């Protein structure tokens, strides 16, 4: 009987080695009839052979087979059974190619530690894969430790010694070690590593020349055999070289070629293979950096938004996105004014008129969670960046990596401090533009309290803090930040042009402070000391120092500011100010100027006291009824609801807790994917049909929270801040709609209560009661009846264009496909979580 069993085993192995996978499967089936279907090794080998028969394309089937054999749900690795090293190695291969590098590394390390690996070839494969996974995790010291501990058998094996040498050399180079490579430029892999050494040593010309040697090498390195496209990699590396020598335009061309070559490779049938390298996010990220350096903020923004979807935990990407928004919205920082003098003597009048274009702020009123080149979205990006750079004690080794930031290198303590300080500076700048001086002051003071802040960062923090204090009418405090000797000491190491700019800014702001205090003599002396081509006409100061009205002093100060540094923003008018104010254009006309009656609340709104330790998220795609549900919750409970955004229109129309995200509010509105598991302990997911949600958000983009977009808007090829036609807009937002719900249904670890908007409309009372049960909040019958009597409120859009259908048949097909996929996720979620988990306790 033993010989009978051994024969199909030997024959199956021989067929597998010859790549006769059909024959191997036949012999395995014969073996299965002899040993039964419960033999784990036979079932594992059958799964591998069937996977190879599919040309490594049927990945899902292999995952299911391995999950059944290991008892693990992909990508979990918590198992105590390490008795099947071949099976677990193949599971690690799946994890590696699915980019779960951490799980792959942990699993392989456990295999090596358990001493169950008796096969030498398997041992070598485990070590090689572990080296590669640790390189992908950018833990280069770990790579060298593994090589030192387990590398001796590989060095003596001619079949794998060259590959082992390459992996070790890569780790040494990336650690900055000055080594002599023992690699010959006789293979495309070696050429890349040699070129990388030249690049890291600063010899970029030699690096580019070395990459060019691929033309003289015979190689078989393509997507089908190795899973990577050589042309995309070469163009990407050349782009990195040219970007490092400050040639962003040339670099962007190479990155564009890399993206195109990768896209071309992904169009072929081999792209479905498990080993296919899908590096588009990396190429797009590099392209975004090059375009940003080339001052193409719009192109860079599109690239970095795509990169952020793949690498949401990289604070560098969020900071770069904010930079794109600032470059777009504040590109003309210094504006020209024409100064005219009318009359003479005591009847002299000074007239100022602005030249050039009008508003430079994004005033479309769109949701801040939807990526757009606006300062509001910049503020959100900067908040994300700060969240990803938590406060912590300085480690003993400040050069050791502490934050992983793929696709770039990890961030060490020194880089973390520089990145966080830069984020605070830009946040203060953006918040001043958004007319939020109090938050700007908090950011500036936070920077000044950082122990590792550079002098440059401190100088800008003092300047922005002074601007914020001027806006807050705290002139004495502002003067403390504008002490010229202190600023001069901070900027001594900066370039001359930058020092001159800061000096002009400081003196101008000091002059403003003295004007606001009524000390025009001192203000005149200060302005006379400014050595700048932007000299203020002295006629403005040459006035009689008689009693002036408060309003006159304010306008005089505003004149000084506009001529010197236009980022100082004064609250010279009420909230519903001129078109140049925050609420300009359509947003103001359709929300802040509405003549609706005030909201009649069932009870006076209060804050949760004491604040709840658990913060509950109210999640939805924009246009899904989030504001209306917040209104209903406030009506029935009398407790305010918060938001991660600052919507000033909502703040003055019934939602006083805008931008409040702690436990003092009932729920916190968000349109973002789950980023920080510690922020929200549980969540309510409000889902609306994507057709209605996308259309509602499109209406809001054009006419605010309750307005309706005109028919002409659906025919335009571009609209404000959205340079795309209606069809592209639907396609883009449909992807965003699916991604948002997918992330919350699959990535959020806490309790999740799912609410369908259509059910909320149809059965408001019972749906609202279910939400209250989830929140563990009791209300009286009178409160519920009052909320139902006032459930309409002023926050629901009236339907128009009944004779107009903006969606095409193809759009409806795409909408149905995405909607069905999300509904399937909802069903899977409800199956996996019992009733007690879905509700809060």
TrEMBL record:
Location of this chain's protein in the cell: Cytoplasm; Nucleus
Pfam families: Sulfotransfer_1
Keyword check for Transmembrane helix: yes
UniProt KW DNA repair keyword: no
Major place of residence: cytoplasm
Organism, scientific name: Spodoptera frugiperda (Fall armyworm)
Domain Sulfotransferase intervals: 615-785
Transmembrane feature ranges: 553-572
GO molecular function: sulfotransferase activity
Protein family according to the UniProt entry: Belongs to the CNOT10 family.
Record key words, sorted: Cytoplasm, Membrane, Nucleus, RNA-mediated gene silencing, Transcription, Transcription regulation, Translation regulation, Transmembrane, Transmembrane helix
Function: Component of the CCR4-NOT complex which is one of the major cellular mRNA deadenylases and is linked to various cellular processes including bulk mRNA degradation, miRNA-mediated repression, translational repression during translational initiation and general transcription regulation.
Name of protein: CCR4-NOT transcription complex subunit 10
GO BP terms, alphabetized: mRNA catabolic process; negative regulation of translation; regulatory ncRNA-mediated gene silencing
One Gene Ontology term, aspect cellular component: CCR4-NOT complex
Superkingdom of the organism of origin: Eukaryota
